[in-house]
Structure formats: C-alpha cells, structure tokens
Design goal:
The longest helix is centred in the first third of the chain and has 19 residues. Strands 7-9-6-10-8-11-12 form a seven-stranded mixed β-sheet. It is globular. About 35% of the residues lie in helices and about 25% in strands.
Length: about 325
Amino acid sequence: MASRRCIGEFELIARYFAPLARTFAGAGGLESDNAYLPADGRNDIAVKTDTIVSGVHFLDDESPERVAAKALRVCLSDLAAGGATPLAYQLSLALPEQWEERWVAGFARGLAADQRRYGIVLCGGDTVATPGPLTITITAFGQVPRGKGLGRGGARAGDDLWASGTIGDAALGLRAVRGKLKGLGVRDRKVLEDRYRLPRPRNALGIHLIGIARAAADVSDGLLADVGHIAAASRLAVHIEREMVPLSAAARRALAVEPALWADVLGGGDDYELVIAVPPRRAGTLQEAALQARVKVTRIGRFAKGRGVGLTVGGRATPIPRTGYVHF
C-alpha cells in the first residue's frame, strides 16, 4: 500500500498549479499573492482571492460583523502589499445547513461598514449551503499603475527591510483568547485580542509604495515566514535584527513575563502589517509616506546575497524557533 506524502502549501502550488499559470505574465509564477491584469494603457487590475473557515481562521462564536470585516480585510491587506487602490470585490458564502437570517443580516452590516471605510463595493459572487463549517471566499480587485504592481520578487541585495505597525500582537491575542497568556492585565489582554479578531490592513500606506518599494508582502503567516517569502521570490537572503522588531506596549509586557513568547511574536500570523524591501536612498521617502498614512514604519533588517532567513539578537546569530503558520 502506497504511503501518503504530505507537502506544504508552497510546494503544492509550485508543483501542480504554477505550471498552469506559466503563460500568463500577470500571475508572476504564483509567487506573489496578487495577480495583475491589464485594464487599459495606464492601469492594471490587481486581483486577490482569500478564503477563511470557521474554527480555523476565526473563532466559532465571533460576531458576524467581525467575521465580515476579517474576510474582507485579509484581501485588502494583500492589495495594500501590491500598492493597489481597492475597487470592488466578489463574495462566495458557504453557509452551514442551520444558518440563521439574523446572522447574515449582521454579516451584511459588517461588509457595508467596511465598504464605506475602505472605498470598495460588492460586484458579485455566489451563495451556497454546506454540510461543513461556515466558509467565506472573497476576491478583491484593485487598481495600480500599469506594470508597477508590487510582488514578493524584486528585492535586491542591500535593500533594507521595513515593517509597518507592530508585530506579534495577533498571535499573542490568540493565546489570550485561549487563556494561555500569563501575567497581563485586562486592558492589555483586550488590546491583543482585538488585534487578532479585527485586522487593520495598511491600505493608506500601500497606495504610496509604488516608486518607493521594490517588493512587499503582508504578514499573514508570520513575520519570519512572510519575509522569507520575499527573500525566496527575490533569490536572496534576509537578515532580521530582533531588537528592531516593533512591538506594542502590551506585547512588551507579555514578553517581560514570558520571554519564550518571542517564538509566537516572530512566527505567529494574522498581524496583516506590511513588510517592505526599500533601497536605503528611499528611506526618507518611505517615512514621509508613512507619516502621511499615519502608520509607523521601522527598519528591521537587510537583504543580502545568499538564501534563507537569518535572525540576530544583540548582533549575534540565533536559531529561528519557528517560521510561521502552515496550512498543511
């Protein structure tokens, strides 16, 4: 009897699905989250699809408004990493057999609120029943100047690595939700839980990255994993200085109590911040764009010739505890 071999998400894509996209340049070899379709002489359309499943990507008892926000915002975050301005989206909703209309009403209210917040509108989709868990798929469309859409590939040796916002809050927030975070007050727990439950995509910053960044990704699988994706797609190594990784006050207090949580901060997902490869000469322009977007950015490392992700603490190389979330 043949044994079943498990392969990872990216190996699965490279082996079976990237060949199907080989003849379409806008797919970028499926090495980035967005595809780019020519729209007219001046613009491309960035396209991104994401699926979230109850009990996997959000809590079973989450409010429908927050489920809607998370479903839409994870796609918006990828558009931000591509430098695209949100335009429209399609929704595929697979409802459990015992669905309730009041839940759908709350879900629609959540979508309506984010449509206003992010300047995007529903343009189609599908609705079905399923014997399995609630499953939501959104395909988002954005606009980007022709040929300028950002992907994971494109970084060059010597580029600096920058991160937006703060890192690790969502992973710590999930631990807090599960009652596995020690020694924190109610306020800190709430701050961290909220970062897990409700992503804040950096679209206000993303639209300014064209002409500044060479490559970008959003932190969905974890800082080390997603920076590693940029390095791999760019055929480079990347070195991260742990003490430069931006932390919230709540995360700092959690780490003071339990330093081993660095593994979650660096390897946990769901932050939906941006990691950005920027030439040193453009650092000031990036900081000006961040100021305009009201988003903090921090230089946390540098790309170099070679392969893989390196981590230093106090200038000394240290083992990487875990790289990030894997789907399989």
